[in-house]
Write a structure and sequence with these properties.
Structural class: alpha/beta
Shape: elongated
CATH superfamily of the largest domain: Spore Coat Polysaccharide Biosynthesis Protein SpsA, Chain A
Radius of gyration: 23 Å
Distance between the termini: 38 Å
Helix content: 25-40%
Number of helices: 13
Mean pLDDT: 93
Number of domains: 2
Number of strands: 18
Strand order of the largest sheet: 3-2-1-4-10-6-11-9
Strand content: 15-25%
CATH topology of the largest domain: Spore Coat Polysaccharide Biosynthesis Protein SpsA, Chain A
Length: about 400
Amino acid sequence: MKKITFVIPSRNNLEFLQLAYESIRKLNTHHEILVLNDGSKDGTFEWIEETKKTDDSLIAHHNLDTSKRVGIVGMFDKGIEMAKTDIIFAFHADMIAGPKLDENILKHLKPGIVVSATRVEPPLHPPGPEKITLNFHIGKECEAHNFDKDAFYDWCNNVGLKDTKTTEGIFAPWCMYKEDFLAIGGHDELFAPQSKEDSDLFNRMQLAGYKFIQPWNALVYHFTSRGSRFNKHAGGAAGKNSEEWLYTTNKNGREFIRKWGHFIKHDQYMKPIIPPKYDIGIILPDNNMELLHAFEPWCNNIYCDTNLGQHYITTEQSNTSFNLSERVLPFNNKKNNDVLVEITNGNLVNSKNFYYINELSSILKDSGEPGEFELDIYKITINQLKEVKI
């Protein structure tokens, strides 16, 4: 069997990390496990260093500054860079490897292919066709201490491993050749420390022509979000959205739109759907900060009152890596965008007609030709339709 490096960032998740480590070692003793300790204060450092004494295939990288979190963007890329094997498996500390996970992943893995495990999750999130919703916890809590390992393994052996179908989707945890990961530049630091980094990465995998495979007998149990919103050490109470997660998911959602021209889109199995990005300018009619904040990420340029624009740039620039001085322009600036969208009445903006902005790339693609047309409160002028390279 080919050797795999399991790359696992972890911050204050020792109980879960220990379960993940044990489950991988239960698969095979020769796989490399590379743990990236991101400033943990829960004994993770001590446990790793002690375990390394009896496990030569356990490798560690420590961020010893407990006050500063690197995040999974930086930690995953550091770990993959350190990996000594040709094959890397982007694993999470709050995951349990099911029986024969490595074997059933490797059956499908080749250069140019990304293989995702099938997640089995407790009902903390809505169910979906790309995963299996089952609870293997004793009692009401979904924690490490009351996880029923025997029940999970029994279900895998008697039920889960018999499902030999595959679907074409992508989600964590995923496995691929290290060379393929490095070829697309790894994670984008735009999304550090985390949130939306995976969707951005999956888009770029698809644009690079990689094929996605999800075998349904390659199983992991995923406790869900223990590195973010359900981690009591990430800024909020356990089971609640932490302040850190709420901030980063909102900020990075806006960054994703600025980069791609649309929000995250995928099919039922999580395969990316990537509409074209066009050079769009939006003309804002009113001196309205709320509208400016809502519309700015969805275009290359937004034209507004000079004082409003300067105030927006001052308050928002710290939340984005994009240069807002190049994006937010005064009304009287020359408008050279390929597509211009004029909001005819800002007082009539609502969730229904804002949806057209969300779908604008697809609408423009379907329209196909230069010209003018009206869509609800928007007057749209297409000068040309040329896709913007991302």
